[in-house]
């Protein structure tokens, strides 16, 4: 079952609209995911649009992806313009065998990318807050978490800005495509800690 079907789509904020991704979103998202300053930090950075399209349209990936569209009243000519994407992957919490069933589908891993041209206006903060709000209500999850390379300061600053708590700073834990083992950071937030 697809847990994100429990959400009434699209989600709307003051300036944005979040909706489920569809296969035709591959090309718009490619416009920012191919940029070196974005590709540097993402898990997969295919070198061509055909490879990217094949990865993007994978059913499991597509089911967990949201598209962030601009609906800023101050920018009417850009209404509906995709400016980012957010992954919301509902998953099981860790549990001992005897209580594993109670931990199924209780948390979500989050991840995001935004077009550099849209940065610096608070759109990412607004969009990720909306996604977290959907995780806690109506999905009723107990926890969300996200991670990044420690060198990706804009990402972990966003996590802190929206109230996520740093749970781990790991030394040389993640191999970057440059061949360098880099430090990593993981953040989490419990439903009872969330302030809408």
TrEMBL record:
It comes from the Bacteria. Residues 16-187 form the N-acetyltransferase domain. One of its GO terms (molecular function) is acyltransferase activity, transferring groups other than amino-acyl groups. InterPro entries: Acyl_CoA_acyltransferase, GNAT_dom, N-acetyltransferase. Keywords: Acyltransferase, Transferase. Its EC number is 2.3.1.-. PROSITE patterns: GNAT (PS51186). It is an enzyme of class 2 (transferase). This is GNAT family N-acetyltransferase. It comes from Leifsonia sp. NPDC080035.
């Amino acid at each position: 079952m697809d847990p994100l079907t429990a959400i009434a789509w699209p989600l709307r904020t003051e300036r944005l609209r979040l909706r489920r991704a569809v296969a035709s979103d591959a090309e718009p998202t490619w416009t920012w995911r191919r940029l070196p300053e974005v590709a540097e930090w993402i898990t997969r950075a295919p070198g061509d649009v055909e490879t990217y399209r094949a990865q993007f349209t994978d059913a499991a990936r597509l089911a967990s992806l949201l598209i962030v569209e601009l609906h800023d009243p101050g920018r009417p000519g850009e209404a509906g313009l995709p400016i980012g994407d957010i992954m919301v992957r509902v998953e099981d919490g860790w549990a001992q065998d005897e209580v594993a069933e109670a931990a199924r589908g209780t948390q979500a891993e989050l991840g995001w990318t935004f077009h550099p041209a849209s940065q610096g206006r608070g759109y990412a903060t607004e969009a990720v807050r909306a996604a977290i709000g959907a995780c806690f209500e109506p999905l009723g999850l107990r926890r969300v978490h996200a991670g990044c390379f420690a060198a990706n300061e804009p990402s972990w600053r966003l996590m802190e800005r929206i109230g996520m708590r740093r749970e781990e700073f790991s030394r040389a834990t993640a191999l970057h495509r440059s061949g360098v083992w880099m430090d990593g950071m993981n953040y989490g937030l419990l439903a009872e800690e969330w302030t809408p």
